[in-house]
Amino acid sequence: MTPTRTRRELAEYLGGKVIGDETVAVNGLAPLENAGPDKITFLANPKYAAKVATTGAGGVLMAPGGERYGRSVIELANPYLGFAKLLTLFYTAPHPDLGVSPQACVAADARLGEGVSVYPGASIGSGVVIGSRCVVHPGAVIYAGVTIGNDTVIHANAVIRERCRIGSRCIIQPGAVIGSDGFGYAPDGTGYYRIPQIGIVVLEDDVEIGANTTIDRAALETTLVRRGTKLDNLVQVAHNCQIGEDCMIVSQVGISGSAKIGNHVTLGGQVGVAGHLSIADDTMIGAQSGVPGTIPASGIFSGSPVMPHKEWLRAMAVVPKLPELKKRITELEKKIAGRETITEKE
To answer: Catalytic residue positions?
Structure first.
């Protein structure tokens, strides 16, 4: 059953301030345009501010100083973060301790902490160590020698290969593969000799891996994803890469081998990163960009190959004009050629 909370309770939970009646209770969240009096809503983008005047919500999360239109509000510095926290409060319940299903395959020497839930069809190999309150969903496969911290969730059909290390409070979405072999082959004259990949993957605490994302094990040492980083669905991280803390890697990004990504880096959708390069801390790369070399200092970049974002915007503004510019250049070339002919005759 969804809990009910007063505006005052919500403000205390979020560290905000109520403007209006503190005693009115709500039992969930809804969008500005659809919320009823038993729901709270939020305003994160100022361009939708006018909708506050017409919403039927029982309260609005908004930044200090915004136009209230007579509505009761909870003021806080980051309404979008407040929205996320209230979703957790109202709709996210702790996972029940289901224990180990008899339909799961768990090695005799695997060590499972308190409150671990293992669903039917999951497979846990020899020597695996899983911390407390973890959840392993149906069809997940955890190879021998893997270690997993506390409160981590492994969703259905995810695979964690041998000896990889997963931190606490991580989330591995369905179909993700952690520790697949790196793409390494040595030419032997007529074909390619497969290079064994004997390293591992390490995910530090609070890392989240999207559905069908793959992270290759290192050839010799470690492919590393540091604390707090989030990878979207369908991301490819090649062997020996290092990704820093609190990065956001959006869907369909491909990172080639031995690349080093700094802290707080954002890679937009379909960005391609070449191997053996570095990207500085606090860098943002726009969607569909190509990164062929090291980015030594932070900034915002776009294009393929990447350039500073403002330069890319100026360049893109010229692109629609190129056919007309080509036509004018052709006409000028004809005029110049005609004048040169007249000069030669003279």
So the answer is: 239
